[in-house]
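Bug #77: duplicate submission created two jobs. Keeping one. Sequence:
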Amino acid sequence: MSKLAKIEGCLTALVTPFRDGKVDFETLAKLVDWQIDNGVDGIVAVGTTGESATLDVDEHVAVISAMVKAARGRVPVVAGAGGNATSEALTLTKASEDAGADALLHVTPYYNRPSQEGLFRHFEAIAKATKLPIILYNVPSRTACDLLTDTVVRLASIDNVIAIKDATGNLVRGSELVAKCGDKITILSGDDGTAFPLYACGARGVISVVSNVAPQAMSEMWDAVNAGDWERAKQRHYELRVLSLMLFNEPSPAPTKAALSILNRCSLDVRLPLVNATPGMVDQLRAELRTLGML
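Kept job's structure:
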């Protein structure tokens, strides 16, 4: 396949709504519609924000299928298909492909802390097993595993490795990725708070948590950057600064689901070992949403 198959812009790492302990597919479809109606450029299914760690394999695949059906080809659906065993990642890759996903998001294997050579071979094996575009996902704060830039350079030579979600929150690292890989793959911010400055470094989009709650504003930030209107983009960055922090004041995605519940978009329920946002957190979110003119 060609590197011309690019994914960029504002992609929402969508929550997985629950009701009575089960996936709420009716609400999920409505969330997809709402996101697309408010200008997002893509949707990520069952990533970290989608509570992939608490879904079983059948649920995982069913959520991807439901999002593909709801999106109806209007925006690409990127399926979270990572695992800390390469065999598991390959199984989820095939299932995501069969479910109709447009691209795959593959996180670095977590907990077992592979070497850089192990990481290269892991992603290489996945790329060889699918024709779908692959977005690498580096989030060392969660995985205890860091995909170093030189390894990304090696992986960028593989035709269907098209992008990396850089969730290090480190602008020096982000700049290094753009300098060494930006002409070969798309650099996407995986951290809302540094999305705007990473755009200034050359990133071409964001996989966003904040856009769950404020899809129009996050999309407008990217659209302004893409149009060269940096002042407008900066305004959106500062408008969303407090909300961006709040959504991680308690374990994610509990605050995000709480904010969506305030907006009557889905329930605030998360699955154990996560717990629902505290009443104090809900009150803070309600006040901030009011400040942003969303209530």
